[in-house]
Write a structure and sequence with these properties.
Layout (H helix, E strand, L loop, with lengths): L1 E2 H4 L7 E2 L1 E3 L9 E4 L12 H6 L4 E4 L10 E3 L3 H12 L8 E6 L4 H12 L3 E5 L2 E4 L2 E3 L8 H13 L4 E5 L2 H5 L8 E6 L7 H4 L2 H13 L1 E10 L5 H7 L3 E6 L6 E8 L4 E7 L2 E7 L4 H16 L4 H8 L10 E2 L7 E5 L4 H14 L4 E5 L10 H11 L2 E4 L9 H9 L7 E3 L3 H11 L5 E5 L6 E4 L2 E4 L2 H9 L2
Parallel strand pairs: 3-4, 4-5, 5-6, 7-11, 7-12, 8-11, 12-13, 13-14, 14-15, 19-23, 20-21, 20-23, 21-22
Antiparallel strand pairs: 1-2, 8-9, 9-10, 15-16, 16-17, 18-19, 24-25
Helix pairs in contact: 3-5, 4-10, 12-13, 13-14, 15-16
Length: about 475
């Protein structure tokens, strides 16, 4: 908490307890910042904020006299970042900040780092916010600035000296992360995604580049040398540029690996020495994910010998190649894969280790780029023995129309459509026989279904579990 006159040059010492940009969430003692949202001008909600107890208002245009102090600034969106940093005593300066971006793998890499660093590290991203044994769901991968800095302060106060966060392209596009200077920035890979926001692939890549542009001069930019945009990221990156991949020039070279049904054995080369790592994470894509996480720990001066010990103890990542432990006769896997590349990677691995059939349940989100759907559907149909297409956050689109798009890229007929996602999952589990693999893809551990403008309570994990509790 701070007094208003500690935040602004104003003769008023009332106590400010928090910062809010959503008038409905304002509580007594909060300062309400009238930012400009994607579809809303929050100046329109000043009266509601005051009614809910706002102690002061920050605006960028004349709003007339109000019953609480009104502070006028040039740009409320920019002011929100400055105010949040000041109010929460600049928490980013008190911890090592690791940012992870890329099309696929962000959550897995950030979660691996979180696990490998243990109690000293906090995590924030798609799987919520986690630290010191606590976990809480959050709506966005990167929260709005008012919440983000509040979380940072929470982590620092709890004794976390490292914060590992997923840094989405949309967060950079919305300028939520502009003032953060990263100690370590990690780029996983780039494939086409989120073009509904960025419009072009070039714009999307440029937003991703912003992470390594914001790396500190004495920090580290960790790049994937196998990615087609490696050279561009290398040109844009700040700090010490290090890489992982399969080239002799890579800082951390993947010499070889062996994929098994229950583990992955990897040989790395680092500083002319070979290290054998046994990882419980499955699939070739997780070789890359683990490589970037290991390199991050090496940049933090943790010995490779110590890293090898920690890797062997990694637990399953929620919603990422997550094998359901309560199923025995066949395998049920929950995964967030929702791009052509991600689906291709996971299905390629499953095809390699399968003993019987692969049954896949998947869909595609509404209100997103439609051009990727035929490719997604083609991969799923060609690499699965049977597919059940269903809804996945349809928003304002007709789920059947989305499914039409998905099946339009292939002439295969090894599928049915069941729009109701719970019924689709139940159908797949009804069909499953000994040694089959059931892949439920697209939503991971999301706890909602986006229909129209509503976020209705829903979770694939809960649905799967409920099937076996009948």
């Amino acid at each position: 908490m701070k007094k208003l006159n500690e935040l602004y040059n104003i003769d008023d010492d009332r106590l400010i307890k928090g910062i809010k940009i959503n008038s409905k969430e304002v509580e007594p003692g909060d300062i309400f910042v009238c930012t400009m949202g994607v579809t809303a001008d929050r100046h329109d909600f000043i009266d509601e904020a005051i009614k809910n107890g706002a102690s002061a208002i920050v605006v960028s245009r004349d709003v007339g006299k109000k019953s609480v102090p009104v502070i006028k600034v040039d740009n409320t969106n920019l002011e929100l970042r400055k105010l949040s940093a000041k109010f929460y005593d600049y928490p980013c300066e008190k911890a090592c900040i690791i940012g992870v971006t890329g099309t696929n793998g962000k959550t897995t890499v950030a979660e691996i780092i979180f696990q490998l660093l243990g109690e000293s590290c906090a995590y924030i991203g798609t799987n919520g916010k986690k630290y010191k044994g606590k976990k809480e769901s959050i709506r966005n991968t990167c929260p709005d600035v008012d919440r983000l800095y509040m979380y940072f302060r929470e982590f620092v106060d709890a004794g976390c000296n490292t914060i590992c966060m997923e840094a989405s392209s949309e967060a950079f596009y919305r300028h939520r992360l502009d003032d953060i200077r990263y100690d370590i920035g990690i780029v996983t890979n780039i494939t086409e995604d989120h073009l509904n926001i960025h419009k072009t692939l070039e714009n999307y890549v440029d937003c991703k580049c912003q992470l390594v542009r914001q790396v500190k001069d004495d920090g580290y930019s960790i790049l994937n040398s196998s990615d087609k945009y490696f050279d561009k990221f290398k040109r844009e990156a700040h700090g010490n540029i290090v890489s992982y991949g399969y080239k002799d020039s890579d800082t951390l070279k993947i010499e070889d690996y062996t994929l098994k049904r229950d583990k992955t054995i990897i040989t790395f080369k680092y500083k002319n020495k070979l290290y054998k790592v046994v990882s419980p994470l499955l699939g070739s894509f997780n070789v890359d994910n683990l490589s970037s996480a290991i390199l991050a720990l090496l940049c933090k001066s943790i010995s490779f010998e110590e890293i090898v010990k920690r890797v062997s103890k990694i637990k399953q990542i929620e919603g990422r190649m997550e094998i359901m432990p309560f199923v025995s006769k066949y395998t049920v896997i929950l995964d967030y894969a929702h791009t052509t590349d991600a689906l291709d990677n996971i299905l390629t691995f499953l095809d390699m280790v399968k003993e019987s059939r692969i049954i896949t349940v998947t869909g595609s989100a509404g209100g997103r780029e439609t051009t990727k759907r035929p490719g997604m559907g083609k991969v799923v149909l060609e690499k699965s023995d049977y597919v059940i297409f269903t809804m996945d956050d349809p928003r304002y689109e007709d789920p059947n129309k989305i499914i039409d798009d998905l099946v339009s890229g292939s002439d295969k007929t090894n599928y049915i459509r069941i729009v109701d996602r719970k019924k689709a999952i139940y159908k797949a589990l009804d069909m499953a026989e000994d040694n089959d693999i059931v892949l439920i893809a697209g939503k991971g551990r999301d706890d909602y279904m986006a229909i129209d403008d509503k976020y209705l309570p829903y979770c694939d994990y809960d649905v799967i579990k409920s099937y076996y509790e009948q």
